[in-house]
Amino acid sequence: MDKQTVHIKSLFQKLADDSISLEERLLLLNTIERAQANDLPNENDIAFDQEDTTLKMTGNEAHNIFNNIIQHIPEVANTNVVPFWKRTWVKVAAAIIPMAGIGLMYKLSMGESRIITYHNNASTIKLVALQDGTSIYLKQKSTLRLHEDFLSRSEREIWMEGEAFFNVQQHANKPFIIHANEDLNVHVLGTSFNVNTNNGHPYVVLSSGAVKVTNKQTSKVLSPGDMAYLKDGELLVNKKIDTLYYTAWKDHLMAFHGTSLQEVLHQVAQHYGYSVTFTGSKMRKELFTGYLSTNNLQQVLSTLEQTFNIKTTVKDQQIIVNN
Fold first, then answer.
1. Within 13 Å and on the Cβ side, how many CA atoms surround 130?
2. Are 84 and 32 contacting, i.e. CB atoms less than 8 angstroms apart?
3. CA 152/CA 169 separation, integer angstroms
4. Which pLDDT tens digit goes with each residue over 231-246?
5. Where is the FecR protein domain (predicted)?
6. Domain 252-322, CATH class in plain words
């Protein structure tokens, strides 16, 4: 058994034991994705060291599970989906890894090329690791698309919807291009930055390095701390902004600057799936600047209670504010 087969077997064993890390899941998924049929080890070579009924399924069963998942995603339910597995053990991995690691990954036939789509329909931020070494933090309800032969092309192109933070691996001969919408494109060599296409007002915030942002009329080269955005079709740039304010989400934080307490609690309640009620109007218009956790509601409420001298109660999916 060669070293590659031994390594793949160890990753599958970790998957069976539920001890596999996110990075190892991504590595296993990328290995399967890149492999050709004649490069894959025999099924007998990766037999598990323990009984695990989770993995005891036929290729047809895995195929049916995958199709069932697809049918529950409206945007791809009626699309010609081409599974990327080639052999039985690959089918098993394909049925398990996407759900556990990065939401759902699927491939669509588009002419002579295939498009790989990453969609984060989970409740948490997902990390996408590309084959060129680029890492992408994909926000909830956001989507990335790229060609299957991404690395073999002269330009590394990605199409996105929603919001994502990119750490792009430098590759001097292959520029990295993000198509944020029909009018806004980001050209990169190696850098870290945030792109947001939500609400029809796309913008780019540069944390480090340099990028060129273009639309149909003009282009702008950004320096760290710059934000490029579209206003009435015109490409504009703000200088020396607080980049953390725009990228805090990837660190599981909500950022506020001069925001009323009423609006802060409205956004907090919306994020956690609650409603909010004020029993008085005294503190509603008080302003808040700072950062609040997106994964610890009690910590958020404790911070606001101490800051504004209020009392909050959580009951029946409702946040009640007393002042």
1. 27
2. yes
3. 15
4. 888 899 999 899 999 9
5. 124-212
6. alpha beta
